[in-house]
Amino acid sequence: MRIPSAAELLGTWDSASQASGAQRALLLLQMVCPEPVELLAQMPLGWIAAQLLKLRAMLLGPEIVCLANCQQCGTLVESSVLVEQLTALAGNAELEKAGPKLFPLQQGDYCIEFKLPTCADLIALHGNLQSAAQALELSQIQRALHKGKVLEPSHLPADVREALQHAVLEHDPLAHIELSLTCPNCELHWLETLQVIDFVWTEISALAQRLLGEVARLAYAFGWREADILAMSDTRRRRYLELLPS
Ligand SMILES: [Zn+2]
Hints:
This protein is an alpha+beta fold and 246 residues long. The protein is globular, with a radius of gyration of 22 Å. 26% of the residues are buried. The protein has 12 helices and 8 strands. The longest helix is centred in the last third of the chain and has 27 residues, at 196-222. Helices cover 50% and strands 18% of the residues. It has one domain (6-229). A hairpin with a 6-residue loop joins strand 1 (63-69) and strand 2 (76-82). Helix 1 (6-16) crosses helix 10 (196-222) and helix 4 (45-60) packs parallel to helix 10. The strands form 3 sheets. The chain has a 4-stranded antiparallel β-sheet. Strands 1-2 form a two-stranded antiparallel sheet. Strands 7-8 form a two-stranded antiparallel sheet. The structure holds zinc ion. Zinc ion binds next to loops.
């Protein structure tokens, strides 16, 4: 993975603005990863999350801060975590190049074969992880048997589906990230889900908008072209901005 230029970042931000979450994830990674986009689309979502967090760390620093309101008293609670701590939990690196791979799961009389969810699955469902959770779960199940007989995945009982979710996370831990929060006011403890794609997109959007603002100020003040301003290093751009009256 390499650091994108300011122009690449703004170009990707433009083209991803109207895209779905999964498409945004792919566009961002396509900008910085050497792998072809077809391969990225087939990578497990936890792998995608790990790469997005690494990109975020390169652009904005190693620590991420999550803000959430306490469910009991409403206090705004802040929790911070190092990207490294999260990516250290990522699954086996061998997974990276393996492409779609089938895993077996036996639960009572039920036997299923499943694959890990990918961006391609999300795009095919025209949805994001929250709204398409059930459809995504069904798309993961490649084969379901009950006492040796083929069964429609939608007829699997709740405990088998629950076991499937646990099995997915064992193979791809970053597919679902939870941060532990404690309210300083009422001491409530809870786990907050970190929606990595949305989180990274929001932060990169803020960065892109800041860049646009810098370009606008410098273009207005000095009459320079956007391409020339974006080609400057961050430090150089900052120096020129410091020369302007605030
Ligand atoms: Zn509280």
